Amino acid sequence: MTDSDDGTVDMTELDAELDRLLAGEAPSAQAPAWCGDVAVLVRTALAPAREDELAREAEIVAQMRELRLAVLAEAEAAVDAAAEAEAEATPEPEAEAEVAPEPEAEADEAEAGEATGRPGAYRDAGPAVIDLRAPRAPVDLDAYRAKHGGERYYRAKHAAARLENSKYPLARTVGRVVAMKAVAVTTAVGIAAAAAAATTGIVATVVVPALTQPEHHVSTTTPAPATEGPEVGTTATRHGHSRSGAAATDRSECASVLPACVPLPAALVPTVSKDVADAAAAMTASAGTTPTTTSTADTTATTVSEAPPTSVAEPPPTTETPTTVSEPPPTTEPPTTAPPDTEPAGATSFSAGDAP
Amino acid sequence: MRPTETTRDLDFPALLAAAVQGEQRALTEIYRTYQPRLLRYLTAQEPGMADDLAAEVWLAVARGLGRFQGDEAGFRGWIFTIARHRLIEHRRRSVRRRTDPMPHDLLDGPVERGIGGDPAWLVIEQLGVRETVELLVTGLPADQAEAVLLRVLGGFDVSEVARVMGRSPGSVRVLCHRALKRLAARMSQEALAE
Protein backbone atom coordinates (compact mmCIF):
# COMPACT_ATOMS: atom_id res chain seq x y z
CA MET A 1 0.00 0.00 0.00
CA THR A 2 1.36 3.36 -0.93
CA ASP A 3 1.16 6.63 0.87
CA SER A 4 -1.50 7.81 -1.48
CA ASP A 5 -3.59 4.75 -0.77
CA ASP A 6 -3.26 5.41 2.93
CA GLY A 7 -4.43 8.99 2.34
CA THR A 8 -7.41 7.81 0.39
CA VAL A 9 -8.43 5.43 3.09
CA ASP A 10 -8.01 8.14 5.66
CA MET A 11 -10.16 10.55 3.71
CA THR A 12 -12.86 7.99 3.24
CA GLU A 13 -12.90 7.22 6.91
CA LEU A 14 -12.88 10.89 7.70
CA ASP A 15 -15.86 11.47 5.42
CA ALA A 16 -17.80 8.74 7.13
CA GLU A 17 -16.84 10.09 10.51
CA LEU A 18 -17.92 13.57 9.59
CA ASP A 19 -21.19 12.30 8.22
CA ARG A 20 -21.91 10.57 11.48
CA LEU A 21 -20.84 13.62 13.38
CA LEU A 22 -23.02 16.04 11.45
CA ALA A 23 -25.93 13.66 11.67
CA GLY A 24 -25.74 13.87 15.43
CA GLU A 25 -24.61 10.29 15.91
CA ALA A 26 -21.99 9.29 18.43
CA PRO A 27 -18.45 9.31 17.07
CA SER A 28 -16.47 6.15 16.73
CA ALA A 29 -13.95 5.07 19.27
CA GLN A 30 -11.04 6.02 17.02
CA ALA A 31 -12.33 9.56 16.54
CA PRO A 32 -10.50 12.45 18.13
CA ALA A 33 -11.75 13.86 21.37
CA TRP A 34 -13.11 17.04 19.84
CA CYS A 35 -15.51 14.99 17.74
CA GLY A 36 -17.41 14.13 20.89
CA ASP A 37 -17.79 17.80 21.71
CA VAL A 38 -19.07 18.55 18.21
CA ALA A 39 -21.47 15.62 18.36
CA VAL A 40 -22.94 16.97 21.57
CA LEU A 41 -23.35 20.38 20.01
CA VAL A 42 -25.07 18.88 17.01
CA ARG A 43 -27.41 16.81 19.11
CA THR A 44 -28.29 19.83 21.14
CA ALA A 45 -28.92 21.83 18.01
CA LEU A 46 -31.35 19.13 16.91
CA ALA A 47 -33.28 19.21 20.15
CA PRO A 48 -37.07 19.21 20.00
CA ALA A 49 -38.92 22.43 19.49
CA ARG A 50 -39.23 24.85 22.34
CA GLU A 51 -42.23 26.98 23.13
CA ASP A 52 -40.60 30.23 22.09
CA GLU A 53 -39.84 28.78 18.68
CA LEU A 54 -43.51 28.03 18.12
CA ALA A 55 -44.80 31.21 19.72
CA ARG A 56 -46.22 32.54 16.45
CA GLU A 57 -47.72 29.24 15.39
CA ALA A 58 -51.36 30.32 15.59
CA GLU A 59 -50.74 33.55 13.73
CA ILE A 60 -48.65 32.09 10.95
CA VAL A 61 -50.80 29.01 10.45
CA ALA A 62 -53.89 31.22 10.20
CA GLN A 63 -52.18 33.34 7.58
CA MET A 64 -51.08 30.26 5.70
CA ARG A 65 -54.60 28.85 5.73
CA GLU A 66 -56.11 32.12 4.61
CA LEU A 67 -53.58 32.41 1.83
CA ARG A 68 -54.10 28.83 0.80
CA LEU A 69 -57.88 29.26 0.59
CA ALA A 70 -57.46 32.47 -1.35
CA VAL A 71 -55.19 30.72 -3.83
CA LEU A 72 -57.70 27.91 -4.23
CA ALA A 73 -60.59 30.33 -4.73
CA GLU A 74 -58.57 32.26 -7.27
CA ALA A 75 -57.74 29.10 -9.13
CA GLU A 76 -61.38 28.05 -9.19
CA ALA A 77 -62.43 31.46 -10.44
CA ALA A 78 -59.81 31.30 -13.15
CA VAL A 79 -61.01 27.86 -14.20
CA ASP A 80 -64.62 29.04 -14.29
CA ALA A 81 -63.73 32.11 -16.30
CA ALA A 82 -61.72 30.06 -18.75
CA ALA A 83 -64.51 27.55 -19.14
CA GLU A 84 -67.04 30.31 -19.63
CA ALA A 85 -64.89 32.07 -22.18
CA GLU A 86 -64.35 28.85 -24.03
CA ALA A 87 -68.05 28.10 -23.97
CA GLU A 88 -68.81 31.55 -25.36
CA ALA A 89 -66.24 31.13 -28.07
CA THR A 90 -67.63 27.80 -29.17
CA PRO A 91 -71.41 27.64 -28.80
CA GLU A 92 -73.00 24.28 -28.83
CA PRO A 93 -75.69 23.63 -31.37
CA GLU A 94 -78.99 22.53 -29.96
CA ALA A 95 -79.08 19.49 -32.09
CA GLU A 96 -75.84 18.12 -30.64
CA ALA A 97 -76.58 19.28 -27.09
CA GLU A 98 -79.80 17.37 -27.06
CA VAL A 99 -78.02 14.14 -27.83
CA ALA A 100 -77.96 11.95 -24.74
CA PRO A 101 -74.51 10.93 -23.46
CA GLU A 102 -73.38 7.49 -24.34
CA PRO A 103 -73.36 4.86 -21.61
CA GLU A 104 -69.63 4.30 -22.05
CA ALA A 105 -68.93 7.95 -21.33
CA GLU A 106 -70.93 7.79 -18.11
CA ALA A 107 -68.99 4.74 -17.05
CA ASP A 108 -65.72 6.56 -17.68
CA GLU A 109 -66.85 9.47 -15.51
CA ALA A 110 -67.77 7.13 -12.67
CA GLU A 111 -64.37 5.46 -12.86
CA ALA A 112 -62.66 8.82 -12.81
CA GLY A 113 -64.58 9.79 -9.69
CA GLU A 114 -63.56 6.62 -7.91
CA ALA A 115 -59.97 7.08 -8.92
CA THR A 116 -59.88 10.53 -7.37
CA GLY A 117 -61.58 9.35 -4.21
CA ARG A 118 -64.65 11.40 -4.91
CA PRO A 119 -67.60 9.37 -6.14
CA GLY A 120 -69.20 11.06 -9.06
CA ALA A 121 -66.52 13.67 -9.17
CA TYR A 122 -66.96 16.27 -11.83
CA ARG A 123 -64.80 15.70 -14.81
CA ASP A 124 -64.52 18.72 -16.96
CA ALA A 125 -64.71 17.30 -20.43
CA GLY A 126 -64.96 20.78 -21.88
CA PRO A 127 -67.65 22.07 -24.19
CA ALA A 128 -68.22 20.46 -27.52
CA VAL A 129 -66.11 22.26 -30.07
CA ILE A 130 -68.07 23.11 -33.17
CA ASP A 131 -66.45 25.08 -35.91
CA LEU A 132 -69.22 26.97 -37.60
CA ARG A 133 -66.84 28.12 -40.30
CA ALA A 134 -65.89 24.63 -41.21
CA PRO A 135 -67.11 23.56 -44.61
CA ARG A 136 -70.41 21.77 -44.36
CA ALA A 137 -72.50 19.93 -46.75
CA PRO A 138 -75.16 22.03 -48.42
CA VAL A 139 -77.79 19.87 -46.84
CA ASP A 140 -76.55 20.75 -43.38
CA LEU A 141 -76.43 24.45 -44.14
CA ASP A 142 -79.95 24.34 -45.47
CA ALA A 143 -81.09 22.65 -42.33
CA TYR A 144 -79.37 25.28 -40.18
CA ARG A 145 -80.91 28.13 -42.09
CA ALA A 146 -84.33 26.56 -42.07
CA LYS A 147 -84.21 25.95 -38.38
CA HIS A 148 -82.30 28.92 -37.02
CA GLY A 149 -82.34 31.49 -39.75
CA GLY A 150 -78.67 31.32 -40.65
CA GLU A 151 -75.41 30.79 -38.85
CA ARG A 152 -74.97 34.36 -37.74
CA TYR A 153 -78.45 34.52 -36.31
CA TYR A 154 -77.92 31.23 -34.64
CA ARG A 155 -74.65 32.30 -33.07
CA ALA A 156 -76.00 35.65 -31.92
CA LYS A 157 -79.07 34.10 -30.44
CA HIS A 158 -77.15 31.63 -28.36
CA ALA A 159 -74.60 34.19 -27.26
CA ALA A 160 -77.35 36.49 -26.03
CA ALA A 161 -79.10 33.69 -24.23
CA ARG A 162 -75.87 32.67 -22.53
CA LEU A 163 -75.26 36.25 -21.48
CA GLU A 164 -78.73 36.54 -20.02
CA ASN A 165 -78.28 33.33 -18.10
CA SER A 166 -74.91 34.34 -16.71
CA LYS A 167 -74.42 33.78 -13.04
CA TYR A 168 -72.86 37.20 -12.62
CA PRO A 169 -75.76 39.68 -12.86
CA LEU A 170 -73.61 42.58 -11.70
CA ALA A 171 -71.03 41.89 -14.37
CA ARG A 172 -73.82 41.62 -16.94
CA THR A 173 -75.24 44.99 -15.89
CA VAL A 174 -71.85 46.61 -15.94
CA GLY A 175 -71.21 45.15 -19.35
CA ARG A 176 -74.44 46.58 -20.69
CA VAL A 177 -73.69 50.03 -19.27
CA VAL A 178 -70.23 49.95 -20.75
CA ALA A 179 -71.59 48.90 -24.13
CA MET A 180 -74.19 51.69 -24.14
CA LYS A 181 -71.59 54.24 -23.19
CA ALA A 182 -69.31 53.00 -25.90
CA VAL A 183 -72.08 53.42 -28.48
CA ALA A 184 -72.87 56.92 -27.21
CA VAL A 185 -69.24 57.99 -27.29
CA THR A 186 -68.80 56.59 -30.78
CA THR A 187 -71.84 58.45 -32.04
CA ALA A 188 -70.76 61.71 -30.45
CA VAL A 189 -67.31 61.41 -31.94
CA GLY A 190 -68.77 60.81 -35.38
CA ILE A 191 -71.05 63.84 -35.17
CA ALA A 192 -68.25 66.00 -33.90
CA ALA A 193 -65.97 64.91 -36.72
CA ALA A 194 -68.62 65.69 -39.34
CA ALA A 195 -69.32 69.10 -37.83
CA ALA A 196 -65.63 69.90 -37.69
CA ALA A 197 -65.17 68.93 -41.30
CA ALA A 198 -68.12 71.04 -42.43
CA THR A 199 -66.97 74.05 -40.42
CA THR A 200 -63.48 73.77 -41.79
CA GLY A 201 -64.75 73.67 -45.35
CA ILE A 202 -66.97 76.72 -44.90
CA VAL A 203 -64.23 78.70 -43.27
CA ALA A 204 -61.69 77.73 -45.89
CA THR A 205 -63.85 78.43 -48.90
CA VAL A 206 -65.96 81.40 -47.82
CA VAL A 207 -64.74 83.18 -44.75
CA VAL A 208 -61.03 83.19 -45.44
CA PRO A 209 -61.32 84.46 -49.04
CA ALA A 210 -63.81 87.09 -47.94
CA LEU A 211 -61.49 88.36 -45.27
CA THR A 212 -58.28 88.24 -47.23
CA GLN A 213 -59.69 89.48 -50.59
CA PRO A 214 -62.11 92.36 -50.01
CA GLU A 215 -62.34 93.13 -53.72
CA HIS A 216 -63.85 89.79 -54.30
CA HIS A 217 -67.23 91.02 -55.55
CA VAL A 218 -65.97 93.71 -57.87
CA SER A 219 -67.39 93.26 -61.29
CA THR A 220 -64.84 93.90 -63.94
CA THR A 221 -65.04 94.38 -67.62
CA THR A 222 -61.97 93.13 -69.30
CA PRO A 223 -60.96 93.63 -72.86
CA ALA A 224 -61.99 90.84 -75.09
CA PRO A 225 -60.47 89.88 -78.36
CA ALA A 226 -62.05 91.70 -81.25
CA THR A 227 -62.62 88.54 -83.09
CA GLU A 228 -64.99 87.20 -80.49
CA GLY A 229 -67.80 89.35 -81.83
CA PRO A 230 -70.88 88.86 -79.75
CA GLU A 231 -68.86 88.16 -76.63
CA VAL A 232 -67.08 91.46 -76.78
CA GLY A 233 -67.71 93.41 -73.71
CA THR A 234 -69.00 90.55 -71.63
CA THR A 235 -68.95 91.40 -68.00
CA ALA A 236 -67.25 88.92 -65.78
CA THR A 237 -66.93 88.62 -62.11
CA ARG A 238 -63.34 88.41 -61.07
CA HIS A 239 -61.93 87.23 -57.85
CA GLY A 240 -59.63 90.14 -57.60
CA HIS A 241 -56.96 88.32 -59.51
CA SER A 242 -55.42 90.35 -62.24
CA ARG A 243 -55.34 88.58 -65.53
CA SER A 244 -54.29 91.41 -67.76
CA GLY A 245 -54.80 90.82 -71.43
CA ALA A 246 -57.02 87.83 -70.95
CA ALA A 247 -60.72 87.96 -71.30
CA ALA A 248 -62.67 86.70 -68.40
CA THR A 249 -65.79 85.75 -70.19
CA ASP A 250 -66.74 82.70 -68.23
CA ARG A 251 -69.22 83.65 -65.57
CA SER A 252 -69.52 80.14 -64.36
CA GLU A 253 -65.92 80.32 -63.24
CA CYS A 254 -66.91 82.61 -60.46
CA ALA A 255 -70.46 81.50 -60.11
CA SER A 256 -69.22 78.22 -58.84
CA VAL A 257 -67.69 79.95 -55.88
CA LEU A 258 -69.72 83.08 -55.36
CA PRO A 259 -73.18 84.10 -56.54
CA ALA A 260 -73.29 86.07 -59.72
CA CYS A 261 -73.45 89.80 -59.44
CA VAL A 262 -76.89 91.21 -59.92
CA PRO A 263 -77.07 93.75 -62.73
CA LEU A 264 -77.97 97.25 -61.72
CA PRO A 265 -81.18 98.77 -62.93
CA ALA A 266 -80.88 100.94 -66.00
CA ALA A 267 -81.69 104.07 -64.08
CA LEU A 268 -78.75 103.54 -61.76
CA VAL A 269 -76.17 102.84 -64.41
CA PRO A 270 -73.95 105.86 -64.91
CA THR A 271 -73.54 106.97 -68.47
CA VAL A 272 -70.79 108.97 -70.05
CA SER A 273 -71.14 110.74 -73.33
CA LYS A 274 -68.78 109.95 -76.10
CA ASP A 275 -67.17 113.35 -76.04
CA VAL A 276 -66.47 113.12 -72.39
CA ALA A 277 -65.10 109.69 -72.73
CA ASP A 278 -62.84 110.71 -75.55
CA ALA A 279 -61.60 113.65 -73.60
CA ALA A 280 -60.92 111.51 -70.58
CA ALA A 281 -59.13 108.98 -72.65
CA ALA A 282 -56.99 111.63 -74.25
CA MET A 283 -56.19 113.14 -70.89
CA THR A 284 -55.28 109.83 -69.47
CA ALA A 285 -53.18 108.95 -72.45
CA SER A 286 -51.30 112.21 -72.19
CA ALA A 287 -50.65 111.46 -68.56
CA GLY A 288 -49.28 108.04 -69.50
CA THR A 289 -51.98 106.04 -67.80
CA THR A 290 -55.03 104.21 -68.88
CA PRO A 291 -58.35 105.47 -67.72
CA THR A 292 -60.20 103.10 -65.61
CA THR A 293 -63.76 103.71 -64.79
CA THR A 294 -65.20 101.97 -61.86
CA SER A 295 -68.85 101.74 -61.39
CA THR A 296 -69.95 101.37 -57.84
CA ALA A 297 -73.22 101.11 -56.15
CA ASP A 298 -73.55 104.85 -55.62
CA THR A 299 -73.71 105.32 -59.38
CA THR A 300 -70.89 107.85 -59.31
CA ALA A 301 -68.45 107.46 -62.13
CA THR A 302 -64.92 107.69 -60.87
CA THR A 303 -61.71 107.53 -62.73
CA VAL A 304 -59.09 105.37 -61.20
CA SER A 305 -55.59 105.07 -62.49
CA GLU A 306 -54.23 101.62 -62.09
CA ALA A 307 -51.65 99.51 -63.66
CA PRO A 308 -52.34 97.36 -65.56
CA PRO A 309 -55.10 99.23 -67.24
CA THR A 310 -58.50 97.79 -66.76
CA SER A 311 -61.89 99.32 -67.05
CA VAL A 312 -64.52 98.24 -64.64
CA ALA A 313 -68.15 98.86 -65.36
CA GLU A 314 -71.44 97.31 -64.68
CA PRO A 315 -73.05 95.85 -67.77
CA PRO A 316 -75.97 97.84 -69.03
CA PRO A 317 -79.31 96.17 -68.74
CA THR A 318 -80.28 97.44 -72.12
CA THR A 319 -79.49 96.15 -75.53
CA GLU A 320 -77.28 99.02 -76.38
CA THR A 321 -73.78 98.76 -77.56
CA PRO A 322 -71.92 96.44 -75.24
CA THR A 323 -69.36 97.88 -73.02
CA THR A 324 -65.93 97.34 -74.24
CA VAL A 325 -62.52 98.26 -73.10
CA SER A 326 -60.12 99.56 -75.58
CA GLU A 327 -56.58 100.69 -75.47
CA PRO A 328 -56.33 104.41 -74.78
CA PRO A 329 -55.91 106.48 -77.91
CA PRO A 330 -52.49 108.00 -78.23
CA THR A 331 -53.81 111.48 -78.72
CA THR A 332 -52.23 114.67 -77.63
CA GLU A 333 -55.41 116.49 -76.83
CA PRO A 334 -55.70 117.94 -73.39
CA PRO A 335 -57.87 115.74 -71.27
CA THR A 336 -61.16 117.03 -70.20
CA THR A 337 -63.48 115.56 -67.76
CA ALA A 338 -67.15 116.18 -68.01
CA PRO A 339 -68.96 117.19 -64.87
CA PRO A 340 -71.30 114.54 -63.58
CA ASP A 341 -74.35 116.70 -63.81
CA THR A 342 -73.91 117.12 -67.53
CA GLU A 343 -73.72 113.50 -68.30
CA PRO A 344 -76.52 112.30 -70.48
CA ALA A 345 -78.47 109.32 -69.49
CA GLY A 346 -77.27 106.23 -71.19
CA ALA A 347 -74.87 103.41 -70.94
CA THR A 348 -71.22 103.85 -70.40
CA SER A 349 -69.82 103.24 -73.79
CA PHE A 350 -66.18 103.05 -74.59
CA SER A 351 -66.82 101.65 -78.00
CA ALA A 352 -64.19 99.87 -79.89
CA GLY A 353 -64.74 102.23 -82.71
CA ASP A 354 -63.51 105.09 -80.62
CA ALA A 355 -60.13 103.64 -80.45
CA PRO A 356 -57.80 104.66 -83.19
CA MET B 1 -32.69 10.87 7.28
CA ARG B 2 -33.60 11.34 10.89
CA PRO B 3 -35.30 8.42 12.64
CA THR B 4 -38.08 10.71 13.77
CA GLU B 5 -38.81 11.64 10.19
CA THR B 6 -39.15 8.09 8.95
CA THR B 7 -42.65 7.76 10.26
CA ARG B 8 -43.54 11.13 8.87
CA ASP B 9 -42.42 9.97 5.47
CA LEU B 10 -45.12 7.35 5.41
CA ASP B 11 -48.05 9.75 5.46
CA PHE B 12 -46.36 12.74 3.99
CA PRO B 13 -48.31 12.69 0.68
CA ALA B 14 -51.62 12.72 2.55
CA LEU B 15 -50.35 15.47 4.81
CA LEU B 16 -49.24 17.49 1.84
CA ALA B 17 -52.53 16.98 0.00
CA ALA B 18 -54.47 18.14 3.03
CA ALA B 19 -52.24 21.16 3.39
CA VAL B 20 -52.77 22.03 -0.24
CA GLN B 21 -56.51 22.08 0.43
CA GLY B 22 -55.93 24.51 3.30
CA GLU B 23 -56.72 22.16 6.17
CA GLN B 24 -55.54 23.70 9.37
CA ARG B 25 -54.51 20.44 10.95
CA ALA B 26 -52.12 19.66 8.14
CA LEU B 27 -50.71 23.14 8.03
CA THR B 28 -50.13 23.08 11.75
CA GLU B 29 -48.40 19.74 11.53
CA ILE B 30 -46.09 20.95 8.82
CA TYR B 31 -45.34 24.13 10.69
CA ARG B 32 -44.55 22.33 13.92
CA THR B 33 -42.30 19.89 12.14
CA TYR B 34 -40.10 22.29 10.25
CA GLN B 35 -40.33 25.60 12.07
CA PRO B 36 -37.80 24.88 14.85
CA ARG B 37 -34.94 23.95 12.53
CA LEU B 38 -35.89 26.64 10.09
CA LEU B 39 -35.83 29.25 12.83
CA ARG B 40 -32.50 27.99 14.16
CA TYR B 41 -31.02 28.11 10.70
CA LEU B 42 -32.24 31.66 10.18
CA THR B 43 -31.21 32.71 13.65
CA ALA B 44 -27.67 31.51 13.03
CA GLN B 45 -27.57 33.58 9.85
CA GLU B 46 -29.57 36.68 10.80
CA PRO B 47 -30.36 36.73 14.49
CA GLY B 48 -32.32 39.97 14.46
CA MET B 49 -34.54 39.08 11.53
CA ALA B 50 -35.04 35.37 12.00
CA ASP B 51 -38.68 35.55 13.09
CA ASP B 52 -39.73 37.83 10.26
CA LEU B 53 -37.80 35.85 7.69
CA ALA B 54 -39.36 32.62 8.92
CA ALA B 55 -42.81 34.14 8.58
CA GLU B 56 -42.00 35.19 5.03
CA VAL B 57 -40.80 31.69 4.27
CA TRP B 58 -44.00 30.12 5.54
CA LEU B 59 -46.18 32.46 3.55
CA ALA B 60 -44.17 31.66 0.46
CA VAL B 61 -44.57 27.97 1.21
CA ALA B 62 -48.33 28.38 1.56
CA ARG B 63 -48.49 30.30 -1.69
CA GLY B 64 -46.59 27.70 -3.68
CA LEU B 65 -47.78 24.60 -1.91
CA GLY B 66 -50.04 23.59 -4.77
CA ARG B 67 -47.17 23.53 -7.23
CA PHE B 68 -44.82 21.41 -5.12
CA GLN B 69 -44.26 17.87 -6.23
CA GLY B 70 -41.91 15.55 -4.40
CA ASP B 71 -41.25 13.61 -1.25
CA GLU B 72 -40.49 14.73 2.27
CA ALA B 73 -36.80 15.30 1.64
CA GLY B 74 -37.64 17.39 -1.38
CA PHE B 75 -40.15 19.37 0.64
CA ARG B 76 -37.57 20.03 3.32
CA GLY B 77 -35.08 21.10 0.71
CA TRP B 78 -37.68 23.36 -0.84
CA ILE B 79 -38.34 25.08 2.48
CA PHE B 80 -34.67 25.68 3.17
CA THR B 81 -34.10 26.86 -0.38
CA ILE B 82 -36.83 29.44 0.09
CA ALA B 83 -35.29 30.41 3.40
CA ARG B 84 -31.89 30.81 1.81
CA HIS B 85 -33.33 32.99 -0.95
CA ARG B 86 -35.11 35.13 1.61
CA LEU B 87 -31.84 35.52 3.46
CA ILE B 88 -30.05 36.60 0.32
CA GLU B 89 -32.82 39.07 -0.52
CA HIS B 90 -32.73 40.45 2.99
CA ARG B 91 -28.98 40.91 2.89
CA ARG B 92 -29.21 42.51 -0.51
CA ARG B 93 -31.84 44.92 0.74
CA SER B 94 -30.07 45.83 3.91
CA VAL B 95 -26.65 45.84 2.21
CA ARG B 96 -24.95 44.72 5.27
CA ARG B 97 -23.39 41.65 6.69
CA ARG B 98 -24.25 40.19 9.98
CA THR B 99 -23.30 42.71 12.65
CA ASP B 100 -25.12 41.42 15.68
CA PRO B 101 -22.45 40.94 18.28
CA MET B 102 -22.19 37.69 20.16
CA PRO B 103 -22.66 38.26 23.88
CA HIS B 104 -19.41 37.94 25.78
CA ASP B 105 -20.94 35.76 28.39
CA LEU B 106 -21.88 33.24 25.76
CA LEU B 107 -18.35 33.14 24.44
CA ASP B 108 -16.66 33.23 27.82
CA GLY B 109 -19.08 30.97 29.58
CA PRO B 110 -18.19 27.72 27.85
CA VAL B 111 -14.49 28.41 28.27
CA GLU B 112 -14.88 29.23 31.90
CA ARG B 113 -16.93 26.12 32.46
CA GLY B 114 -14.56 23.95 30.48
CA ILE B 115 -16.01 23.15 27.08
CA GLY B 116 -13.34 20.63 26.29
CA GLY B 117 -13.62 18.75 29.51
CA ASP B 118 -17.23 17.80 29.77
CA PRO B 119 -19.06 19.10 26.75
CA ALA B 120 -22.14 17.00 27.23
CA TRP B 121 -22.77 18.36 30.66
CA LEU B 122 -21.89 21.83 29.53
CA VAL B 123 -24.12 21.89 26.49
CA ILE B 124 -27.10 20.17 27.94
CA GLU B 125 -27.12 21.85 31.28
CA GLN B 126 -25.87 25.30 30.52
CA LEU B 127 -26.49 26.16 26.90
CA GLY B 128 -29.74 26.53 25.07
CA VAL B 129 -30.42 25.40 21.56
CA ARG B 130 -29.90 28.79 20.04
CA GLU B 131 -26.62 29.32 21.84
CA THR B 132 -25.48 25.87 20.77
CA VAL B 133 -26.13 26.64 17.14
CA GLU B 134 -24.34 29.94 17.55
CA LEU B 135 -21.43 28.18 19.10
CA LEU B 136 -21.38 25.66 16.29
CA VAL B 137 -20.85 28.23 13.58
CA THR B 138 -19.07 30.98 15.47
CA GLY B 139 -15.83 31.87 13.80
CA LEU B 140 -16.64 30.01 10.62
CA PRO B 141 -16.73 31.73 7.23
CA ALA B 142 -20.21 32.28 5.88
CA ASP B 143 -20.15 29.49 3.31
CA GLN B 144 -18.72 26.95 5.76
CA ALA B 145 -21.25 27.95 8.39
CA GLU B 146 -24.08 27.62 5.91
CA ALA B 147 -22.93 24.21 4.77
CA VAL B 148 -22.70 22.98 8.35
CA LEU B 149 -26.09 24.44 9.24
CA LEU B 150 -27.76 22.87 6.26
CA ARG B 151 -26.21 19.52 7.01
CA VAL B 152 -27.05 19.65 10.69
CA LEU B 153 -30.34 21.56 10.88
CA GLY B 154 -31.65 20.75 7.45
CA GLY B 155 -30.70 17.12 7.78
CA PHE B 156 -29.44 17.05 4.21
CA ASP B 157 -26.68 14.91 2.80
CA VAL B 158 -23.91 16.36 0.71
CA SER B 159 -25.77 16.21 -2.57
CA GLU B 160 -28.86 17.90 -1.16
CA VAL B 161 -26.79 20.65 0.44
CA ALA B 162 -25.03 21.13 -2.87
CA ARG B 163 -28.40 21.50 -4.59
CA VAL B 164 -29.63 24.03 -2.06
CA MET B 165 -26.42 26.05 -2.14
CA GLY B 166 -25.97 25.80 -5.89
CA ARG B 167 -22.54 24.21 -5.55
CA SER B 168 -20.96 20.93 -6.51
CA PRO B 169 -21.01 18.09 -3.99
CA GLY B 170 -17.22 18.12 -3.82
CA SER B 171 -17.23 21.76 -2.93
CA VAL B 172 -19.76 21.18 -0.18
CA ARG B 173 -17.70 18.31 1.15
CA VAL B 174 -14.60 20.50 1.27
CA LEU B 175 -16.56 23.22 3.05
CA CYS B 176 -17.72 20.79 5.71
CA HIS B 177 -14.22 19.40 6.20
CA ARG B 178 -12.74 22.82 6.67
CA ALA B 179 -15.53 23.87 8.99
CA LEU B 180 -15.08 20.88 11.25
CA LYS B 181 -11.32 21.26 11.16
CA ARG B 182 -11.65 24.85 12.27
CA LEU B 183 -14.17 23.84 14.92
CA ALA B 184 -11.84 21.14 16.17
CA ALA B 185 -8.93 23.54 16.35
CA ARG B 186 -11.00 26.00 18.32
CA MET B 187 -12.12 23.39 20.80
CA SER B 188 -8.61 22.03 21.18
CA GLN B 189 -7.30 25.48 21.93
CA GLU B 190 -10.02 26.02 24.48
CA ALA B 191 -9.24 22.68 26.06
CA LEU B 192 -5.56 23.46 26.15
CA ALA B 193 -6.22 26.91 27.53
CA GLU B 194 -8.09 25.33 30.37
Structure description:
The complex is a heterodimer of chains A (356) and B (194). Chain A is mainly α and 356 residues long. Chain A is built from 10 helices and 4 strands. In chain A, a hairpin with a 5-residue loop joins strand 3 and strand 4. Chain A is elongated, with a radius of gyration of 53 Å. The N and C termini of chain A lie far apart (146 Å). The relative contact order of chain A is 0.06. The N terminus of chain B is likely disordered. Chain B is mostly helical and 194 residues long. Chain B has 11 helices and no strands. At the A-B interface, helix 1, helix 2 and helix 3 of A face helix 3, helix 4, helix 7, helix 8 and helix 9 of B.
Brief descriptors of the model:
heterodimer; A: 356 residues; mainly alpha; two-stranded antiparallel ribbon; disordered N terminus; disordered C terminus; B: 194 residues; 11 helices; 0% strand
